[in-house]
Design brief:
The chain is of the alpha+beta class. The protein contains 12 helices and 28 strands.
């Protein structure tokens, strides 16, 4: 391959508003171009080097290949015949991110904008246009990919497709600096979000059986994902260039965070803030048919769980049942994601096949609507056994659609009334909540803890596993509730309890209720692909939050409500989607809630 780096601050590329970007381009070993182009966009807190390596197999860390970069780096793709664009997004790395790169004048307002279509997405389009104008990139063979922040950037590039969002919010045709019409050919967003406010403040209205973007948007303001939001703010202030509070209304992240942390009753402009993020940093408000999409999400990802890919998947298939979208799901991503080697090998090789088809016209590609899943297995790589003792992820499991991935269901039902009480913290919930809070607690998806005794103020449900089954999707809860008090909410956790009494967290979720709400509600947990063994026990907890009294420096997973409330629960059904088909013994039945 041939490597063309930006080596000094003076040689950075000014973007459309003059902010200088640190850019590298990698070319195939021979030829003059133009080549099909892949844009690789780094994650939050990273820079252009995140997906650069000195070997096609990826970066070497402690003598082992780094699994996220295995067959996912500039050299791997350049040697397959692509031009590869790696750059530091504005506000990160040497694109005004690190203090030493903030040259006066050009970097005065060079802060990051939360992957805003008017800024970061437009930056990517400008760089692509320059490469097309320079004869490096083929105008009809442009692909985009990235992880986390880069995943959010690449999915928006796909949904804009052939349009550019200007700083005033208007949309115009995407043209190169010299005026050539451009359009994205395909995208592979990884660890992605599709609706930023729903990730930061989920209200629990998402259902994988519906196209739920309108329901989510019109529902109540959600519950702050406090731990991950706190980690984002702290990380941005340390590693990037964040707009000073009040300096830029388009990205007043510090001011927005303060409003979220203050909680209920929310200021009147909270919905305006969430609408801004939904309009300019998400795809749910964008019209049109996106470029072909291969979406990757982690069930155990506490920041952008699988629902973020599923929302986009459902939107595409609602437009066209044969729309060009496919899914990759497994135990990967942020926080608790294990990111095992064979999961990344499976997904990264599939991603390469996907780009070969759409950008080079080679191979069979990935079938529209199809799903590839890998299971969570324990222990995780971060646990104590040496690498040789760590089992590979199970799979791959393949299906023609998301629905076809889980043809069966396991039910837990109860008509016994139970009550959630926001004024009843108990030491078991506090201890477990602190242990499992993302980023500030464990990063190990396989961490287990002794199962506590039931406590007043938390509702528990469970059943024994008489024959092993494979959870493969998002558990659904349907219940009749009667809430009393202000700002009620339900936090949920699903556990696998082993015969020795130790429990492992499998999935979690949150649902915002309205004051004094009496209704039958349906909501889903984050989901997983996980084998429940015979003799184990499935245990569901419903509670007000991880803990109400927040210890200093240890934010809970979901922000506790400012209100005092109880929620009476009756006629509860928990439906676990499973990979097995209905069985004669009745443990696995036909899905009803998930149909």
């Amino acid at each position: 391959m041939r490597f063309c780096p930006t080596t000094t601050l003076a040689k950075r590329v000014p973007t459309w508003d003059g902010v200088p970007l640190d850019v590298d381009v990698t070319l195939p070993p021979t030829g003059k171009g133009p080549w099909p182009l892949i844009v690789m966009i780094h994650g939050f807190g990273g820079d252009k080097t995140m997906f650069e390596a000195d070997n096609a197999r990826g970066k070497v860390v402690d003598g082992e290949f780094s699994t996220p970069t295995y067959h996912y780096n500039n050299i791997f793709y350049a040697q397959r015949g692509y031009a590869v664009l790696n750059y530091s997004s504005r506000g990160w790395g040497s694109s005004c991110g690190v203090p030493a790169s903030r040259t006066p004048g050009s970097c005065d307002r060079g802060w990051w904008h939360m992957a805003d279509q008017r800024y970061e997405i437009r930056d990517a389009q400008m760089l692509i246009g320059k490469l097309v104008d320079g004869g490096i990139a083929k105008a009809d063979s442009i692909g985009a990919t990235g992880v986390s922040f880069g995943g959010g950037t690449s999915i928006q590039l796909a949904w804009l497709r052939n349009r550019t969002r200007l700083s005033d919010g208007s949309l115009i045709p995407w043209r190169s600096p010299k005026g050539q019409r451009l359009s994205l050919a395909a995208a592979w967003p990884r660890w992605v979000w599709s609706n930023m406010p729903a990730a930061l403040m989920p209200n629990g209205y998402f259902l994988d059986t519906e196209t739920t973007a309108p329901a989510e948007a019109s529902g109540p303001v959600g519950v702050m994902a406090q731990a991950v939001a706190t980690a984002l703010i702290e990380g941005a202030e340390i590693t990037g260039f964040t707009a000073p509070r009040g300096a830029d209304p388009t990205v007043d992240m510090l001011g927005w965070s303060a409003l979220m942390l203050a909680g209920e009753p929310y200021a009147s402009n909270m919905r305006t803030i969430l609408k801004n993020l939904s309009t300019y940093s998400s795809v749910t408000q964008l019209s049109g048919v996106p470029a072909p999409l291969l979406l990757e999400s982690g069930f155990t990802d506490e920041l952008f769980p699988a629902r973020e890919s599923l929302r986009a998947y459902n939107l595409v298939r609602a437009q066209n049942p044969n729309g060009q979208v496919a899914l990759q799901v497994g135990d990967l991503g942020h926080a608790r994601g294990s990111n095992k080697l064979n999961t990344n090998v499976t997904f990264n090789n599939q991603g390469a096949t996907y780009f070969d088809y759409w950008l080079r016209g080679v191979g069979a590609g990935v079938k529209a609507g199809s799903v590839t899943a890998m299971t969570q297995t324990c222990p995780a790589p971060t646990a104590s056994p040496p690498p040789t003792a760590i089992p590979a992820a199970g799979g791959p499991f393949r299906a023609s659609s998301w629905k076809a991935l889980h043809p069966g269901a396991v039910w837990i039902s109860s008509s016994t009334p139970r009550t959630i009480d926001s004024d009843r913290d108990n030491r078991f919930d506090v201890s477990i909540g602190q242990m499992f809070t993302p980023y500030f607690g464990t990063r190990d998806a396989c961490l287990s803890t002794p199962m506590p005794a039931s406590a007043y103020g938390t509702a528990y449900y469970g059943r024994e596993v008489t024959r092993r089954f494979t959870l493969m999707g998002l558990p659904t809860v349907k219940a009749t509730i009667a809430a009393t008090g202000l700002y009620p909410q339900i936090a949920s956790r699903l556990w696998d309890v082993a015969p020795d009494g130790r429990q492992t967290l499998i999935a979690r979720g949150v649902r915002r209720l309205t004051a004094n709400q009496h209704a039958t509600i349906t909501f889903q947990l984050s989901g997983n692909a996980y084998v429940f063994e015979q003799g184990h026990r499935v245990r569901l907890e419903l509670m007000h939050s991880d803990y109400r009294e927040v210890p200093a420096g240890l934010p809970p997973t979901f922000r506790p409500s400012n209100g005092s409330f109880t929620v009476a629960i009756s006629k509860l059904i928990l439906e676990l989607p499973v990979h097995e088909t209905p069985s004669a013994d009745g443990q696995v039945v036909k899905p009803v809630l998930g149909a």
